[in-house]
Design brief:
This protein is of the alpha/beta class and 371 residues long. It contains twelve helices and 13 strands. The two termini are 25 Å apart. The mean pLDDT is 93. The structure holds pyridoxal-5'-phosphate. Pyridoxal-5'-phosphate is lined by residues 80-82, 105, 154, 158, 182, 184, 212, 214, 220, 225.
């Protein structure tokens, strides 16, 4: 079975017969989990556990309103960004064909398939010369007449880590009946907020921005995300879904984290410094390895490509050797249309883990060359 998602330490642990805690998961791209996060969670009271969550998530939405400067009605908390894609896809399916990026995040297709939604793909600018923001220009639309379909994009893009300029995205808002902007990784990108579309939501009823707290707080297990869009759209989504998609513990935590604006901003700055520091360090070391090329990325992950004598060959034997002998998971990119087995995605980790990864790569690459 081909993996369409990173971060599955459970099946890797079963394959390797080790405890999940022994695995280094660089196939998912999460910020470091703050040491205090489990303590914040364990502050839950019996009341938090016993009562049903507030179905309107008032406190969570108020915290978001304070953070983004919009009325609480413009926010809908979700069980991770993924849950919200499902509802965005229902709207998109009712409007016609969806345009999805190629290569792109597989969950958009999963969400559209729930509603038998039609999809076509567009190509992305493939200028890899820098990690700076660049215009998003849709290319290679499979059928040109679809240039007015519902547009989905990821900023920064997954899996490439390229950052799209807000100016270019603004233009697209005038051409598509619905635009779904996935900003799951944007708060982790240094200078990323300057390219967010959240400030444009109030003037564009056809715009939906989806954010995830999973990446920012290194808390994928909690499942926390939110949508920012016109209140009428969000009320419709809320009526479709089950009454309490976000559990009370996660919701109370989000309220505390986001309700403290200064704390939130300080956390984002510290994560962005980590992205910059670890990205630069790792790229400079990876460039010194024969047979691999790290691609420019603005995000907290990067793509590795088979290079030099190995150009065009598969990196899967290397990925499997890292998994089997070092218990390090990298993201297999075979399932990404337009990439294939000669590419791997690597989510940044701590410096200690980066050193371990580099040691493992130095050990495995020569064997892999000889294979
Ligand atoms: C681009 C992108 N958007 C959204 C998500 C899902 O985020 P969440 O964990 O909040 O559902 C992911 C997870 O891998 C992702 O890569």
């Amino acid at each position: 079975v081909r993996s369409t998602h990173g971060g599955n330490i459970w099946s890797a642990a079963e394959r390797l017969c080790v405890r999940p805690g022994r695995i280094v998961d660089a196939s998912a791209s999460l910020a470091p989990t703050p040491w205090w996060l489990p303590f914040s969670l364990s502050a839950a009271s019996v009341r938090d556990l016993r009562a049903y969550p507030d179905p309107t998530y008032r406190g969570f939405r108020q915290a978001l309103a304070g953070l983004h400067g919009l009325d609480p009605d413009w926010f809908l908390p979700g069980n991770g960004a993924s849950e919200l894609f499902t509802w965005a896809a229902r709207d998109a399916s009712s409007l016609g064909v969806s345009l999805l990026p190629r290569p792109g995040f597989a969950d958009y297709s999963r969400a559209l398939a729930c509603w038998a939604g039609q999809a076509s793909t567009y190509g992305l600018p493939d200028d890899w010369t820098s990690s700076g923001p660049r215009p998003l220009v849709l290319s290679g639309l499979q059928v040109e007449s679809l240039s007015d379909g519902c547009l989905w994009f990821t900023n920064p893009h997954n899996p490439t880590g390229l950052l799209w300029q807000r100016r270019s995205l603004e233009d697209l808002l005038h051409q598509h009946p619905l635009v779904i902007a996935d900003e799951a990784f944007l708060p982790l990108v240094p200078g990323g907020e300057a390219h967010s579309l959240i400030p444009l939501v109030s003037d564009h009823p056809n715009l939906v921005v989806i954010r995830s707290l999973t990446k920012l707080y290194g808390a994928a297990g909690l499942r926390l995300g939110y949508a920012v869009a016109h209140p009428e759209r969000l009320q419709r989504w809320a009526a479709w879904r089950d009454p309490w998609p976000v559990n009370a513990l996660a919701s109370a935590l989000a309220e505390r984290l986001l309700g403290d604006r200064r704390g939130y901003e300080a956390h984002c700055r510290s994560v962005q410094r980590w992205t910059e520091r670890e990205g630069q360090w790792l790229k400079s070391r990876l460039m010194g390895l024969d047979g691999l090329r790290p691609m420019p990325s603005a995000a907290n992950f990067l793509l590795l490509r088979a290079d030099g004598d190995r150009a065009g060959s598969s990196l899967q034997p290397l990925r499997l050797a890292l998994e089997r002998r070092h218990h390090i998971l990298l993201r297999d990119c075979s399932s990404f249309e337009g990439l294939g087995p000669g590419w791997l995605r690597l989510g940044y980790q701590s410096r200690r883990v980066h050193r371990r990864l580099l040691r493992a790569l130095r050990q495995e690459l020569p064997l892999f060359d000889a294979a």
